[in-house]
Amino acid sequence: MPTKTEKPKVAAKVPAKATKSPRKKAVNSLFFKFTGDDGIEYSLTKKQKLFVEHYLLNNTNGIEAAIAAGYDVQFKKNGKPTGQINRRQASAIASENLYKPDICAYITIKLDQYGFNDKNVEKQHLFLVNQNSDLANKRGALDMYYKLKGRYAPIETETKTTIKFENLNDDELDKAINAITSK
């Protein structure tokens, strides 16, 4: 029998043998696996994959993509669907989906496949520069593209500093004044 200072011994847990389960294979088939641009393997459920496809191909927003992908976004009364769409719930699902790294990686791959990449945008830029219709909209789009790519010089901003001079001695006050006037 163990003493008060001695802890009782507990039998070591032996891990159970891993057995291949037919359910495990079925679960794996529910996922769409792909390798992202970063070389990492990702996986999506069928609904998530449908969400991305509707989001990109059908020119819809996240709410419409969530509804079209088959997410359960209907109002319920006594646990039964009423047939009315709960757009707030669809919005929450879409927002959550668009923050998931697996979905973002798949969107990036699909955009690249559709030609929405730097090389293609630069070709479009060259085309736009060499034609003469609707220049105001094109200038705005190009301006935004260059800002996003960091091709403009950084915007200079003014900074304001507040210094309290109440409890400074003469030497500290001189240093503060010199620091302000030397800028």
Task: Describe, in short, the structure shown.
The chain is mostly helical and 183 residues long. The chain is built from eight helices and four strands, in the order αββααββααααα.
The overall strand count is: 4
Structure annotation, total helices: 8
Order of helices and strands: HEEHHEEHHHHH
Rg of Cα set: 30 Å
Q: Which secondary-structure class do the elements indicate?
A: mainly alpha
Described by the principal axes of the CA atoms, the overall outline is extended
Instruction: Name the CATH homologous superfamily of one domain.
Output: Terminase, small subunit, N-terminal DNA-binding domain, HTH motif
Secondary structure blueprint with pairings:
Elements: H1 22-28, E1 31-35, E2 41-45, H2 46-57, H3 62-68, E3 74-77, E4 80-85, H4 87-97, H5 101-113, H6 118-129, H7 135-148, H8 170-182
Antiparallel strand pairs: 1-2, 3-4
Helix pairs in contact: 2-3, 2-5, 3-4
Describe this structure in words.
The longest helix is centred in the last third of the chain and has 14 residues. It is built from eight helices and four strands. Helix 3 crosses helix 4. The termini are far apart. Among the domains are: 91 residues, Terminase, small subunit, N-terminal DNA-binding domain, HTH motif (Arc Repressor Mutant, subunit A), CATH 1.10.10; 35 residues, no CATH class. The strands form two sheets. Strands 1-2 form a two-stranded antiparallel ribbon. Strands 3-4 form a two-stranded antiparallel ribbon. With 183 residues, it is mainly alpha-helical. Helices cover 49% and strands 11% of the residues.
